[in-house]
Write a structure and sequence with these properties.
The chain is of the alpha+beta class. Helix content is 28%, strand content 42%. The chain has two domains: 49 residues; 112 residues, Immunoglobulin-like, CATH 2.60.40.10.
Length: 173
């Protein structure tokens, strides 16, 4: 009789150990799945948190109010864009649409600063971060009011300006 009780105890202990290992395996698999999904989203989160201000529906384009750049040089800045539409905007690029001089200076097509950015797909009601390279193309020293535009292909593949924002461009020697 003693032997049966000892055997019964061993079988129940083995069953408990097997169930514990199954639950541990499921827990580890779930944790791995969560971290794998988060790993894909981390570059977006880091890009947004590096910005001075994160974009939102109230402030869809975020960039510094004043950008200082030396004549003939380039400057790298971080810009955030928030898509207020429920639909995804595909291939959104940032560009300087226009600049106006403070005073007598004129901005021509040749001296207009240029922007290099990578086009990104921006999901509905979400934001992304951009790294921009602004190239100064021969403006005189002084202050300019420029307009940055977030644009991309819209209906019928016509370039559509989604958002615009003005900023000051300070050109120094």
């Amino acid at each position: 009789m003693n032997k049966k009780a000892a055997l019964s105890l061993s079988v129940s202990a083995i069953v408990i150990i097997v169930i514990a290992f199954v639950v541990l395996g499921l827990g580890l698999t779930l944790t791995k799945t969560i971290f794998t999904g988060a790993k894909e989203k981390l570059p977006e989160a880091f890009a947004l948190t590096e910005l001075e201000r994160e974009p939102s529906s109230e402030m869809p384009l975020t960039l510094p109010d004043t950008v200082s750049i030396k004549r003939g040089k380039t400057k790298t800045i971080g810009v955030g864009y928030y898509n207020k539409d429920p639909m995804t905007h595909f291939g959104v690029k940032l560009d300087i649409k226009s600049c106006y001089a403070v005073g007598d200076q004129q901005v021509t097509n040749e001296t207009m600063p240029t922007v290099t950015s990578i086009a990104q797909d921006v999901g509905g009601n979400s934001g992304v971060g951009y790294k921009l390279i602004i190239q100064e193309n021969g403006l005189l020293s002084g202050q300019y009011v420029c307009e940055l535009v977030a644009e991309g292909p819209g209906p019928a593949n016509v370039t559509t300006p989604w958002e615009t924002k003005q900023f000051f461009l300070q050109v120094t020697t």
